[in-house]
């Protein structure tokens, strides 16, 4: 079966998505919205303002999915574990984190699969090359637009976050008590304001924070700045991101599509360059600059924020331990290759190095998403760091993977 690795991955993510959906449905009956809001209010029974604030949010929480998004938005994972039961924490993580993430991955695989079916029907080489070049140019152009808009969005969100964290506003005080922390992510505030307005996110984009009727403290952010930031981050960037995934998926499909009842060029490329001596292996490794760039990026993400953060809570110590474990795990392909050489057995260098850089890329993506989303409060970093650092490292890791394939081919 051609492209069996891709097909197996596609089916696996589909099965994972279905399993998460079934798990979510099975937990629905165990969730009580009013009971969970009461638990949040109980972090300070003497604060009537916090209880009143949660009551103003209640009309906008129309279902249990809304509750999951609220909890994910205003609480870190550490706060969730302290306030809610394990069942509720699992429900929140499944619906507000794992399902969207796995859904995006499965959607990307689905687009690539459809593109492969379309491309496999193309018989003329010049048409195939036209699709490859046009999808590559489209992907690079859209990626450039996405980069510019991301910089604009991060800048606006940083302005908003610094104003709210320094303004001693109403929501800031409540977030201090919920998370036992004084520095909060901008998305914590956006989530709180979203559920404080009747029209939720649509109202925030149209009217900004004027409909929330909350006390914003001494540093009141310009309403137009808030609306611009929300519009860019919630509407424009996702649309550009979808277009980027579409063009990137077609470009990826041109590498792995089997044409004229033969394996793809990528398949034969993976089988190329066989090595069976230490000298060849070391020489190839030293000349492979994409590997070294990818390695530096990976180590950088392990050091920060894996090792560089406050060591005040058990969760922060756990973060360090997990990142330390990742270091030997990520070098399994290289260790395997070295063991083959010691036994004087040949192995495919391109295949081994592709898997190695791919493993770096996957670990960087998941590590950064988990740390900066689930543990954002424990990191104690401003939003420009929590957005720009993962964006830079993930982008560099993907460039290294593409660059390695392009250079070798």
Automatic annotation (TrEMBL):
User: Which InterPro entries does this UniProt record tie to the protein?
Assistant: EAL_dom
What PROSITE patterns does the record tag this protein with?
EAL
Show where the EAL domain sits. Answer: 1-114
The residues that cross the membrane are 6-29, 97-119, 139-160, 229-256, 289-309, 315-336, 357-375, 387-405
Alphabetical UniProt keywords: Membrane, Transmembrane, Transmembrane helix
Please state the span of the N-terminal signal peptide per the UniProt entry: none
Per its record, how is this protein called by name?
Motility-associated protein Scm1
């Amino acid at each position: 079966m051609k492209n069996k690795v891709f097909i197996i991955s596609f089916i696996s993510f589909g099965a994972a998505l279905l399993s998460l959906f079934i798990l979510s449905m099975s937990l629905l009956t165990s969730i009580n919205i009013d009971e969970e809001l009461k638990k949040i209010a109980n972090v300070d029974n003497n604060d009537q303002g916090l209880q009143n604030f949660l009551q103003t949010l209640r009309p906008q929480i129309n279902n249990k999915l809304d509750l999951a998004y609220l909890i994910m938005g205003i609480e870190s994972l550490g706060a969730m574990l302290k306030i809610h039961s394990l069942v509720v924490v699992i429900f929140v993580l499944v619906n507000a984190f794992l399902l969207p993430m796995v859904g995006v991955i499965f959607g990307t695989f689905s687009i690539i699969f459809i593109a492969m079916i379309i491309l496999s029907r193309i018989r003329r080489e010049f048409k195939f090359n036209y699709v490859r070049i046009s999808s590559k140019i489209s992907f690079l152009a859209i990626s450039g637009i996405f980069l510019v808009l991301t910089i604009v969005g991060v800048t606006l969100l940083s302005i908003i976050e610094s104003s709210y964290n320094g303004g001693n506003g109403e929501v800031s005080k409540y977030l201090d008590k919920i998370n036992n922390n004084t520095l909060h992510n901008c998305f914590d505030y956006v989530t709180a304001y979203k559920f404080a307005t009747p029209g939720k996110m649509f109202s925030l984009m149209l009217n900004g924070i004027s409909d929330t009727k909350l006390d914003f403290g001494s540093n009141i952010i310009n309403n137009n700045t808030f609306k611009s930031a929300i519009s860019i981050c919630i509407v424009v960037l996702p649309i550009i991101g979808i277009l980027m995934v579409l063009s990137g998926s077609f470009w990826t499909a041109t590498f792995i599509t089997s044409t004229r009842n033969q394996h793809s060029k990528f398949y034969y490329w993976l089988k190329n360059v066989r090595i069976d001596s230490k000298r060849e292996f070391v020489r190839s490794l030293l000349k492979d600059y994409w590997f070294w760039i990818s390695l530096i990026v990976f180590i950088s993400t392990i050091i920060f924020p894996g090792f560089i953060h406050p060591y005040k809570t058990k969760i922060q110590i756990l973060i360090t331990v997990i990142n330390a474990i990742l270091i030997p795990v990520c070098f399994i392909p290289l260790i395997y290759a070295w063991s083959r050489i010691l036994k004087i057995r040949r192995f495919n260098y391109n295949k081994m190095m592709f898997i190695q850089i791919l493993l770096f890329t996957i670990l960087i993506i998941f590590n950064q998403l988990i740390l900066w989303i689930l543990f954002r409060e424990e990191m104690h970093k401003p939003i420009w760091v929590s957005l720009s650092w993962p964006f830079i490292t993930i982008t560099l890791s993907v460039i290294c993977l593409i660059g390695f394939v392009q250079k070798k081919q």
